[in-house]
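Example for tutorial group B:
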């Protein structure tokens, strides 16, 4: 339940540094590469089922996705506001969305990872509301993926009935069996089962291929990945080579400057820092950004 809500955000200018190889990590295929025919396995072909069935036409692919309808009262209890009129905070996510789209289009970025230094800073809340804000722009196609494989939360927050994401990432289940379309232009890739060995899963070439095929099939303008915290495990390090940029969520009540610096060092040379969202901001001077849930 949202009680006291303040969010500020600041998209920082960063170098468009390309991800560079990290010593000791396996070499990935180029993220959008397609396996040569001879190498195509059953799983590989399972992944490409929707793309093949729709002739590579993203319009047909989006239309063919199973849809999901939200219980607005229930999602609001989890702090998600799909429509602009649902809560004043949507205005702030709309501003963040527009700033991000401008920065991303200049650099041709599509894949954005949302992380924070430590647990509970509001990553999932920000990733989900940002995806909903993107969804309010009819011209933008967005895919929200729950890659917090240890503690998947988004399915619960959206009230979505989905299976284990692990089966889609490995190619055991086809993409179309898992992805749900919300409205016309937001696709949700959620998860109902924690994955043991999450970093290994994020590092695996199979996951890289699944994400590449998902992107090729739906050709979204934006992919948002909800991730675990950046400090304390190697999950975020594992996925950084596969994303264009990182949106860092800081908790205004406890994230320190050292935390932000540590995350920034981690991202440097591997991806780019798109910006920092200050969640639970408590600076009253920032009143113009402040929002509170109206209570009856
Ligand atoms: N601005 C806010 N105002 C009120 N409650 C908030 C705010 N941001 C987050 N919360 C609440 O704090 C809790 C943690 O938020 P959330 O799950 O988004 O964090 P997280 O960083 O994704 O956590 P984890 O590291 O466990 O994945 C949730 O109950 C969420 O509703
Ligand atoms: Mg989370």
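The residue assignment follows.
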């Amino acid at each position: 339940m949202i009680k006291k809500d303040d969010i500020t955000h600041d998209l920082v200018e960063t170098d468009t540094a390309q991800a560079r190889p990290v010593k000791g990590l396996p070499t990935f295929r180029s993220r959008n590469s397609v396996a040569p025919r001879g190498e195509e396995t059953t799983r590989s072909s399972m992944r490409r089922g929707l793309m093949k069935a729709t002739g590579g036409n993203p319009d047909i692919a989006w239309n063919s996705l199973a849809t999901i309808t939200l219980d607005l009262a229930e999602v609001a209890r989890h702090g998600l506001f799909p429509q602009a009129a649902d809560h004043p905070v949507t205005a702030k996510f709309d501003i963040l969305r527009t700033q991000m789209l401008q920065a991303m289009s200049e650099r041709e970025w599509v894949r954005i990872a949302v992380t924070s230094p430590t647990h509970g800073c509001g990553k999932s809340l920000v990733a989900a509301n940002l995806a909903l804000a993107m969804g309010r722009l009819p011209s933008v196609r967005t895919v929200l993926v729950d890659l917090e494989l240890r503690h998947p939360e988004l399915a619960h927050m959206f009230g979505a009935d989905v299976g284990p994401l692990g089966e889609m990432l490995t190619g055991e289940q086809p993409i179309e069996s898992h992805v749900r379309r919300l409205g016309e232009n937001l696709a949700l890739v959620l998860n109902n089962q924690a994955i043991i060995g999450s970093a290994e899963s994020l590092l695996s070439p199979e996951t890289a291929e699944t994400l590449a095929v998902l992107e090729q099939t739906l050709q979204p303008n934006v992919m948002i990945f909800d991730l675990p915290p950046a400090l304390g495990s190697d999950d975020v390090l594992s996925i950084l080579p596969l994303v264009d940029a990182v949106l860092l969520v800081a908790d205004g009540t406890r994230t320190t400057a050292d935390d932000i610096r540590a995350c920034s060092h981690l991202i440097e040379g591997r991806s780019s820092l798109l910006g920092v969202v200050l969640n639970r901001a408590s600076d009253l001077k920032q009143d113009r950004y402040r929002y509170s849930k109206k209570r009856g």
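Confidence is low (pLDDT under 50) at residues 12-30, 283-296. Compare this with the pattern of hydrophobic and polar residues in the output above.
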